[in-house]
Design a protein that fits this description.
alpha/beta; two-stranded antiparallel ribbon; 14 helices; 2 domains; globular; Arc Repressor Mutant, subunit A; D-Maltodextrin-Binding Protein, domain 2; 385 residues
Length: 385
């Protein structure tokens, strides 16, 4: 039997996260983690009778057993129940960027309906957990970020084509001349036309299972131990980063088992590791932490916000800069695993942050904070324009 999917959404001042909830999956996850129907009921704030009845009802609807009902033994999921739970988790992780974009569209529509003076800023960006938090923070100031998570390359192209007012992308700290990042991003950016706004540094590394069972500590370990790997999609900043690191290590894509397997977000990579489909993937610490996974730091990078110089005086852009400069936002960002606010909300000299163009070095340029400076990379130059 083909089962159809129906979606709905909640409208209110506190409607929860972007995740699309499913009551059956909530039941299965609670039983799986607690080991009993009664414990699952307590976690969900429901009665034992209701949870038991719902599980029985779903078994009839799906035509498959979900729970092993052995008297005197802890409740556990059947093979089908486990497959259903993990399949839904994987789907949620892979669709997270699209789900967040859909929610942003709806919120923008209602923001204008309820308050015509509310600011809306269209934002194309490489997938980043801090941006989701920023979107929540800006709503408090009547600024709604219409965020479309896409690859870094596509984000800058969208900015250049007028499809958005802000683009998010990332490079390693102290990007070197001739690097793959330079080859990728330099043709898309022009000093004088584009401006960079300070945001944060973050750490990227290997997302691995709890306890790091294969004892992975480098990309060479992926090859030497035939570790199954989950890659990011072409056009993403993390894919550019991986290819850069492989060249520096003297490795070929063919040396990585699973290089061709692509996942659309850091969350999807973490879910692939969590489900046991792969042994590791390159991603951010926050995504590993969110799923109880271990994290092996490899390199620090700077997450850039780019806009056109002409848009700096627009009300929506000015409102964003005000939020980024606020103490409340910077404290919230600093609590995310692997993130450090750097020059947050400051308009930076692009040719100093990305030294890919010929310019006269300023020996007295002020140095900003450097998150993970011991993980490879120089201090972030926080020289304002």
């Amino acid at each position: 039997m083909m089962h159809r999917i129906k979606l709905n959404y909640t409208l209110g001042p506190d409607a929860g996260s972007a995740r699309i909830r499913n009551p059956l999956i909530d039941l299965l996850e609670s039983v799986n983690s607690s080991g009993s129907i009664s414990a699952a009921a307590r976690v969900l704030g429901l009665s034992y009778r209701h949870v038991w009845g719902e599980l029985k009802r779903w078994e009839q609807v799906l035509g498959q057993p979900l729970i092993v009902w052995d008297k005197g033994h802890s409740a556990r999921l059947t093979e089908f129940g486990s497959k259903l739970m993990w399949a839904e988790r994987q789907a949620q992780a892979r669709l997270l960027p699209q789900i967040e974009a859909l929610r942003a569209d709806l919120e923008r529509t209602f923001a204008v309906a309820f308050d015509e003076s509310a600011h809306v800023l269209t934002f194309y960006a490489s997938h980043d957990q801090a941006l989701a938090a920023l979107s929540e923070e800006t709503r408090k100031r009547r600024l709604h970020l219409d965020i479309r998570f896409t690859g870094s390359v596509d984000a800058i192209r969208a900015l250049n084509e007028g499809r958005c007012g802000m683009a998010g992308f990332h490079t390693r700290l102290g990007p070197v001349s001739g690097s793959l990042a330079q080859q990728t991003y330099k043709p898309l950016l022009r000093p004088g036309l584009h401006k960079l706004i300070g945001f944060a540094t973050r750490v990227q590394g290997l997302i691995v299972a709890p306890g790091n069972p294969l004892n992975l500590s480098s990309l060479e370990d992926l090859r030497n131990r035939s570790a199954r790997f989950a890659n990011r999609s072409r056009g993403t900043g993390t894919r550019v980063l991986l290819d850069e690191l492989l060249v520096e290590c003297g490795l070929q894509p063919s040396d990585i088992k699973g290089y061709e397997r692509e996942e659309p977000s850091h969350a999807a990579v973490a879910e692939a590791v969590s489900s046991g489909q792969v042994d590791a993937g390159l991603g951010i610490e926050a995504s590993a932490h969110a799923r109880g996974l271990d994290f092996v730091p490899l390199t620090a990078e700077q997450y850039h916000l780019a806009c056109l110089k002409s848009s700096l005086e627009h009300p929506a852009t000015a409102a964003l800069l005000e939020v980024l400069r606020s103490v409340d936002w910077q404290h919230r960002l600093a609590k995310l695993p692997g993130y450090t606010p750097v020059c947050s909300g400051e308009v930076l000299a692009m040719r100093k942050v990305l030294p890919w163009w010929h310019f006269r070095k300023d020996k007295h340029a002020g140095a900003g904070l450097a998150a993970g400076a011991g993980i490879g990379g120089d201090a972030v130059q926080c020289t304002k324009d």
